[in-house]
Amino acid sequence: QLIQPSETLSQYVENLLAEKLNWEEAKFEVLLRDAAQILATVSGYIALITFPDNRTTRLRHLQLMHLELGQVMLIIVTDSYETQSVLMNLPHSEDDKTVDESIVERELKILSNFLNSKLRGRTLTELEKLDWSELDREFVRYADFLSNLLTELTRRTVVPKSSPIMIRGISEVLRQPEFAEIDQTLDLLHLLEEEQEQLWSVIFKVPEELEFKSRVKIRIGAENSLEPMRGCTLVSANYQQDQVPVGSVGIIGPTRMIYENAIALVEAAADYLTEALSQPA
């Protein structure tokens, strides 16, 4: 018999997320933290939400700002509403002493527009591949500077293997009788706190067939590949951006959990994050 998720609980969680989370003003990290806390509180289990995979994060907006003492700051906003910035020195030339500040401001504005036209919508891993041959001759002196700037930005923003996981509800689940065994509980806590790279690869998996990308995944007991989780159940669902899975919402609890409620919770949270990340710029 197929498990039918609770529509009542799903609607309740959707309303709660919409009411409690301020997507327009709060930082993305705060939103994920609060969403995970809501899931943990409502379910009584451990809630996990992976940050969006940085390898799929795309540029939404870029700006070059001229600061004092010959410095420039590159600010970018990604499609997951995260901001990154890099501060570097402007390239020197023989005529630096006579350079008009207004000219520098104008050139940086033109360069910002050029970079936006070339990079908007591209992933952060593509930032180093910009073709500088399209720069006008008067801006050639910025080529190496911008290349180094984007390289440094890429180094800071792209995570090689996995992204962080927001985890809430550990205290809630420790009240469950299944977690009374100290050694088992310590192994699980170590996994959650120290082995997030392993955990991330289990929670977030991009399905091979796109038509199955929204399906909730349930792993019970020995179906979990990681030893500390074999006394638990993991219920997870991917959230998407531009119809591409970029992260996952999960709940870890005892194998006797109420599955229709757990499914409703992760589906509602994944749908909420998908909708929020799909908002136009």
Question: What's the tally of helices?
Answer: 8
Total individual domains? 2
- Taken as a percent bin, the fraction of beta residues is 15-25%
Helical content band: 25-40%
Low-pLDDT parts are: none
Biggest pleated-sheet summary: 5 strands, antiparallel
The first-level CATH class of the largest domain is given as Alpha Beta
Radius of gyration: 23 Å
Strand order of the largest sheet: 5-1-8-7-6
CATH superfamily of the largest domain: GAF domain
SSE diagram, text form:
Blueprint: H1 7-20, H2 28-43, E1 46-50, E2 59-66, E3 71-78, E4 83-89, H3 101-119, H4 143-157, E5 165-168, H5 170-173, H6 182-194, H7 196-203, E6 217-220, E7 232-241, E8 244-254, H8 259-277
Describe the structure.
This protein is of the alpha+beta class and 281 residues long. The strands form two sheets. A five-stranded antiparallel β-sheet has the order 5-1-8-7-6. Strand 3 and strand 4 form a beta hairpin. The chain has eight helices and eight strands, in the order ααββββααβαααβββα. It has two domains: 164 residues, Beta-Lactamase (2-Layer Sandwich), CATH 3.30.450.40; 99 residues, Enolase-like, domain 1 (2-Layer Sandwich).
